Amino acid sequence: MCGIAGILGLENNNQARYNSLTDMVSAMQHRGPDSWGYYISPEIALGQTRLSIVDLSTGDQPFDTGNSIIVYNGEVYNHIEIRKELEARGIRFTSKSDTEVVARAYEFYGEKCLEKFNGQFAFLIWNKKKKELFAARDRFGIRPLYILEFAGQVFFSSELKAFDTIRGFRREFDIKKLYQHALFWNTFGTSTIYKKITSLPGGVFRIYKNSRLFREERYYDIGQVVPQNHKCYEEVKEEFNFLLEDAVRLRLRSDVPVGAYLSGGIDSSVITSLIKKHTNNRFKTYSITFEDKEFDESHFQKEMINLINSEHYFQNITYDKIDDAFPEAVYHTERSVFRTAPVPLFLLSGKVRENGMKVVLTGEGADEILFGYDSYKELKLLEFWSKFPDSKLRPLLIKNLYPHLNHYKNEKMFGLMKMYYEGFLNNFRNPLASLNIRMHNNKIAGNYFNKNFNIQFDESKVIDEVEKNLPGNYSTWELLNRNQYLEMRSLLSGYLLSSQGDRMSLAHSVEGRYPFLDHRIVDFLFYVNPEFKMKGLSQKFLLRDSFQDKLPASIVNRPKRPYMAPDLASFIRNGKPTENTSFFLNGQIIKDYGIWDEKYISRFLNKFRRNMSKHTGYRDNMLISFILSTQIVQYWINHPRKFTLPEKKLKVGINDY
Questions:
Q1: What CATH architecture does domain 233-364+497-556 belong to?
Q2: Please, are residues 371 and 420 in contact by the beta-carbon 8 Å criterion?
Q3: What is the pLDDT of residues 305-340, one digit of tens each?
Q4: How many C-beta neighbours within 10 Å does residue 404 have?
């Protein structure tokens, strides 16, 4: 993994361009502390800071093939196979890096090269003869690429904070987009929560000519690969197991040791068991444990550790650790978050790095592709209710929705829960699918914004904007497939793989790899019978069935428990805000930043001074994290950090003018 930066547009002051580029790269050194490099011409400047994982000796960047220059953040796991294919066609290589494979594949296949790559990546390739820039991002948006048009130039970066180094520019919230972010935990399309800054969507490439966008095209979308025939369950099971095992095998390719995260859930347990199958060495695993036993899963983690005999390391999380690390974690998320969940992952990646590791495999993606989220169960419940309005099973199904929440087990609450879900019966089939529920739970955030912004909730406008970004055949899909598409294009790519994935791991120079997000698996599973993925209300049935004889029964059969960390309890103790909370939410800073309504914030905090139950609800936990993290983001915008690049780590310096 790496950090990449680019500046497109004519500039005759070479020193000024060098300074601007290296300032941007220096702000991302945490992504790649091993080396850095630059390429500068009158038309473009490209820079990279490298985390060396494949081809440690000759893989430095920018990489110059003679015809093109590439800066690249990511991994293409099937680079060996692509290299052999190109060599058979007469292409010669000067390194063993996957970076060169990407560049040579582009030169030979053009934009069609993207269809061959199995991996996670964002890259910029400058065609020196055509004076053309090719920018692309992996299918699911695992690795980031942000774009800013400013002062007659186009700036590219792996992280938003690099833009803070540009003279005359300052990040500024787009409050309407920030509210959209609150509703869905992400923004739609190319937009971000900042004015002027956009994000290249996953599965999209762009071509720039004469310093302007010449062409944009989506080369991949979820659901675009339609199978020619429907397979029976046993055929699906056999192919799924082959693909998943192969995905793990490919992601073990590395010139440095590879470890894994082990949460205690079935997803990471499956991945670690497959790693064990494909390695003869004892490998390292890492887990989060919690002081608060409500969140702790160490019992299940220890079962897997004993089974796979890994060299294991625990990172214990306390309320104090979350409170202390929250500002630093938010510095790296670069935008508002809605839970403290990123913080333990931030601390865990620090533990990994301290232990001398650079690469870990994790279980992200399984919930999306195998219907593991409770949102899928909610949709299935609503669909059943709409088909069988007189069924006596309707209220009984409620207690199976969230088995980890006590009030869903309480029969006295069934009437209230029934009324809540009945409120979605008339609109659960609209284009938002289960995002309806998330949106309606989160719209309360609008009340807390500064009233000068005139934030108003308009469901029809939200639906219109979502529809603009949907594929043409979306309406023909099964209900749960529509939900999968939305989850993967919103929550997964824009939040889980960013705020809890890329940013938290690379804050400590650790690369995460995600076997479940091998595009072959995603494409294969999308159109299989939904009952194979969720049988009744049994989530991830195919995965559980495939590994029932290979993993402890306690892990295979345990109900889905979402990864969470304590929110309010980390920021308010004995009715009093912590020092960090008091600082960022004091009345003067609220006024100075101008984002929130001071009276609403004061009332919100006073509520917990009077009484705070350990089991405070979803909205209160979401609000404290969202409001506090937004303030911290603004603080870092107002107080940008300054960095310099060590000259001794400069490996590539190309002045092409």
A1: 3-Layer(aba) Sandwich (3.40)
A2: no
A3: 999 999 999 999 999 999 999 999 999 999 999 999
A4: 14
